[in-house]
Amino acid sequence: MTKSELILRLAESNPHLYQRDVERIVTTIFGEIAEALARGDRVELRGFGAFSVKRRDARVGRNPRTGDSVRVDEKFVPYFKTGKQLRDRLNAEDA
Predict the structure, then answer these.
(1) Which helix (H) or strand (E) holds 30?
(2) Are 74 and 56 in contact (CB under 8 A)?
(3) By the 8 A CB rule, do 77 and 56 touch?
(4) Chain CA centroid to CA 79, Å
(5) Which residues, by range, are in coiled-coil regions (predicted)?
(6) Other CB atoms within 10 A of residue 66 CB
(7) Which pLDDT tens digits describe the chain residue by residue (95 residues)?
(8) How would you classify the pairing of strands 75-82 and 59-62?
(9) Distances in whole angstroms, Cα of residue 1 to Cα of each of 4, 6, 7, 8, 41
(10) What is the value of pTM for the model shown?
């Protein structure tokens, strides 16, 4: 599902809201999650999962085309861990 599909579904299920307002709400939520992660904070959505930032150490990698060694700097990457309710829903026997 893309962001625009999410906005469309939410707008359809909430006919009392204008689509532009739903778009603003979704954009604000995503923006706040991104800002929190940029600050190094953890974002937990109970029943859904938690977003956090993990640090990857600097390392020596390989260029797959030439095989040459390439230095890869330290970096921070977003990480998502599913919540128990979401995991249970995905692994339900009757699904």
Answers:
(1) helix 19-38
(2) yes
(3) yes
(4) 8
(5) none
(6) 8
(7) 999 999 999 999 999 999 999 999 999 999 999 999 999 999 999 999 999 999 999 999 999 999 999 999 999 999 999 999 999 999 987 65
(8) unpaired
(9) 8, 7, 10, 11, 26
(10) 0.78
Say how far apart CA 92 and CA 57 lie, in whole Å. 37
Q: Which residues pair with 44 in a beta bridge?
A: 50
Strand partners, 52: 79
Please give the Cα distance from 77 to 21 (Å, whole number): 31
Partners of residue 51 on adjacent β-strands: 43, 80
> What is the distance between the alpha carbons of residues 29 and 67, in angstroms, rounded to a whole number?
42
Q: Report which of 76, 26, 82, 78 is spatially closest to residue 50, judged by C-alpha positions.
A: 82
Q: What is the pLDDT of residue 83?
A: 95
Alpha carbon of residue 49 to chain centroid: 10
Place of tokens 């939520």: 29
